[in-house]
Amino acid sequence: MNWFKHYANADKDSRLQRLKTDYGFWGMGVYWSILERVVCYGEGCYPRNELMGMKLNRRDTGVIKAVLDRYDLFLTDEFGIHRTPVELNGRTDAVGT
Questions:
Q1: Nearest residue to 83 (alpha-carbon basis) of 40, 52, 19, 30
Q2: CA end-to-end span of the chain
Q3: 72 in Cβ contact with 38 (< 8 Å)
Q4: Which residues is 74 bridged to in the sheet?
Q5: In terms of C-beta density within 10 A (0-12 exposed, 13-18 middle, 19 or more buried), how is residue 64 classed?
Q6: How far is the C-alpha of 91 from the C-alpha of 58, rounded, in Å?
Q7: Which of 87, 4, 78, 85 is nearest to 41 (CA)?
Q8: What is the pLDDT of residue 21?
Q9: Could you list the mean pLDDT of each consecutive 10-residue stretch along the chain, which spans 97 residues?
Q10: Which long-range CB contacts under 8 A does 93-96 form with residues at least 24 apart?
Q11: What integer pLDDT is reported at residue 74 of this predicted model?
């Protein structure tokens, strides 16, 4: 089973606090789901259109877009997610089995 390290106090980060204020634990769940996909994908760019496939309903699409674009939680462009901020999620090479 894959795993990755992240800071135990990530919940205290102001970006995640804003996300939780705006979307509650629904938004936090979307954040951690995206993070797991990006980290396990490895090097390179995780395709943005694949993340849109995570949606269960129209509300999910808005939350996914907000998590990617409004809170500076991921480094993104029109093609996808390139990486996550190291200061929030720990070392990007801290993935194991």
A1: 40
A2: 5
A3: no
A4: none
A5: buried
A6: 33
A7: 4
A8: 96
A9: 66 90 92 82 76 71 88 83 60 44
A10: 94/4, 94/5, 95/2, 95/3, 95/4, 95/39, 95/40, 95/42, 96/2, 96/3, 96/4
A11: 85
**What pLDDT score was predicted for residue 36?**
81
Query: What percent helix, strand, coil does the chain show, rounded to 5?
Result: 55, 10, 35
Residue at token pair 């480094």: 75
- Residue 50 to residue 47: CA distance in whole angstroms: 6
pLDDT given at position 49:
80
CA distances from 60 to 30, 32, 45, 51, 68 (A): 8, 14, 22, 10, 12
Which residue has tokens 């093609």? Answer: 79
Whether 30 and 60 have beta carbons less than 8 Å apart is answered as: yes
* 51 touches 81 (CB < 8 A): yes
